[in-house]
UniProtKB/TrEMBL annotation:
Species this protein is from: freshwater metagenome
Protein name stated in the entry: peptide chain release factor N(5)-glutamine methyltransferase
PROSITE patterns, per the entry: N6_MTASE (PS00092)
Pfam family, one: PrmC_N
Domain Methyltransferase small as annotated: residue spans: 118-198
Length: 286
């Protein structure tokens, strides 16, 4: 059996189960230590023993994926902006929809630094893997923008992944293992980025999400707005006057988020994600 045939069989299985066929390419490329585009660009020469080993390993991954295990958990990592973040059970997989918050953060960091000529203080509430906090620290350094970055995360399992990713990418990010309500008492910062759990409890979710990723990082309460309300209160307490909040939320929550922010914030603006869906809001503390 050729590599192409192995891949085509997996794609057929995924198509029947309405799983993206790209996942099969990603998993096979991972085993071959290449990128998925190379699977189509060149012939892959393997002897019979290598081919047998590949088929066995690939079948194990395909079986796990068909059972619902997220592709990122099988790989052990997930891409986010310019970096790969280690992921696994106990931590939310970073999504591309969140990447634009980092762009907005960098714009604000550049603006704040130009005004004060000092390091800009950034707090990431509900940091999870550290995708936001680490990306901000990494990219600010590339742009020679001085920052101090603090990542707040309450879940022990997520904190382990967070610390692992900080060490992996060798960035300066301080970890605070705490709920947002009690974190950073008497501390003030220039910028808060928050990606709280915001999905309403009765929302149907794919099996690979609800059966594997932590509910504490997904469900924002009965209506989905309860936990974001706590994050907004924490951000208001932590931010300096004139500081900026960037908060991700469910695509139907923009109006509710704006109402919550209307008491204590101005310059409230709703933004779309990469799929052109209303995904996050920016607001400046009065």
């Amino acid at each position: 059996m050729l590599v192409r045939e192995i891949l085509d069989q997996a794609k057929s299985q995924f198509k029947e189960r309405e799983i993206s066929e790209v996942d099969a390419e990603i998993l096979l490329a991972h085993l071959l230590d290449t990128d998925r585009m190379q699977l189509h660009a060149k012939e892959i020469d393997l002897d019979s023993a290598q081919l047998l080993q590949l088929e066995e390993s690939f079948n194990d991954l395909i079986t796990a994926r068909l059972s619902g295990t997220p592709t990122q958990y099988l790989l052990g990592y997930a891409p986010f902006r310019y970096l790969l973040f280690d992921v696994g059970p106990g931590v939310l997989i970073p999504r591309p929809e969140t990447e634009l918050l980092v762009d907005a953060a960098l714009v604000e960091i550049k603006r704040a630094h130009s005004e004060s000529a000092r390091a800009v203080s950034v707090v990431d509430l509900g940091a999870g893997t550290g995708a936001i906090a680490i990306s901000v620290a990494f990219e600010a350094d590339r742009h020679k923008l001085p920052v101090t970055v603090v990542a707040v995360e309450r879940e022990l399992a997520a904190c382990e992944w967070l610390r692992k990713n900080i060490q992996k990418h060798d960035v300066e990010v301080r970890v605070i293992e705490s709920s947002v309500e009690s974190a950073l008492i008497d501390v003030k910062c220039d910028l808060v980025i928050a990606n709280p759990p915001y999905i309403p409890a009765d929302t149907p979710l794919p099996a690979n999400v609800i059966n594997f990723e932590p509910h504490s990082a997904l469900i924002g309460g009965v209506t989905g707005i309860e936990v974001p309300t706590e994050f907004i209160a924490a951000a208001h307490r932590i931010l300096k006057s004139g500081g900026l909040l960037l908060i991700e939320h469910f695509e139907t929550q923009g109006t509710l988020i704006a109402q919550l922010l209307s008491n204590g914030f101005n310059e409230i603006e709703l933004h779309n994600d990469l799929n052109n869906r209303p995904r996050w809001t920016s607001a400046r503390k009065l």
